[in-house]
Amino acid sequence: MERTQALAALSALAHGDRLDLVRLLVRTGPEGLPAGEIARRLGLSASRLSFHLSQMEQAGLVGSRRVARNVIYVLRPEVLGRMLGYLLQDCCAGHPEIAACCGTGAPDLPDLPDERRGAGEGTGAGEAEPSGQAAGSAGLERAGLERAGWPGRARA
């Protein structure tokens, strides 16, 4: 991944609603979700969601396809994985302590309540538990993709 692509992806992720969007789309796997359902689950207006989806699409993190009258949005896990790999390998020069903190397994994903904007907003992220996976972006990508129902898509 080139520096400009990594910066675009990181910039797109630098917003709470967009991180929630990634969290939601990771869980839906390759089936994705229609825009209306995403808006409902995240408690966002249609115009606000459209803005965030546009930012994510421009960064290459989200793709879409039309099914009848619906536009289905999906996370592009290969782009997210390359961005994480860029951070770990290029920016952090494969530093073993950083890789060890990030690549030992998939953390427990927090719940995304439908009424995210209401009382009890959000939950904290769980701690990663060691699972014997290889350190680095391949381990991160593999753990996240398999958990989301994308078996075999991650590259070792």
Task: Show the helix and strand layout.
Elements: H1 3-13, H2 16-28, E1 33-34, H3 35-42, H4 46-58, E2 62-67, E3 70-75, H5 77-91, H6 96-102, H7 137-147
Antiparallel strand pairs: 1-3, 2-3
Helix pairs in contact: 1-4, 1-5, 5-7
What structural keywords apply?
156 residues, Arc Repressor Mutant, subunit A, 3-stranded antiparallel β-sheet, 7 helices, mainly alpha
Outline of this structure?
By secondary structure, the chain is mainly alpha-helical.
Strand numbers in spatial order across the main sheet: 1-3-2
What is the strand tally? Answer: 3
Q: Domains counted in the coordinates: how many? A: 2
Question: What separation lies between the terminal Cα atoms?
Answer: 16 Å
Helix content: 40-55%
Percent of residues in β-strands: 5-15%
The general outline is elongated
What's the total helix number?
7
SSE string, helix = H, strand = E?
A: HHEHHEEHHH
CATH topology of the largest domain, which one?
Arc Repressor Mutant, subunit A
Low-confidence stretches: 115-145, 151-156
Oligomer: single chain
Highest-level CATH class of the largest domain: Mainly Alpha
- The CATH architecture designation of the largest domain is Orthogonal Bundle
Question: How would you describe what is shown here?
Answer:
It is a single chain. With 156 residues, the protein is mainly alpha-helical. The protein folds into 2 domains: 3-75, Winged helix-like DNA-binding domain superfamily/Winged helix DNA-binding domain (Arc Repressor Mutant, subunit A), CATH 1.10.10.10; 86-147, no CATH class. It is 50% helix and 9% strand. It has 7 helices and 3 strands, in the order ααβααββααα. The protein has helices spanning 3-13, 16-28, 35-42, 46-58, 77-91, 96-102, 137-147, and strands at residues 33-34, 62-67, 70-75. A 3-stranded antiparallel beta sheet has the order 1-3-2. The model is unreliable at 115-145 and 151-156 (pLDDT under 50).
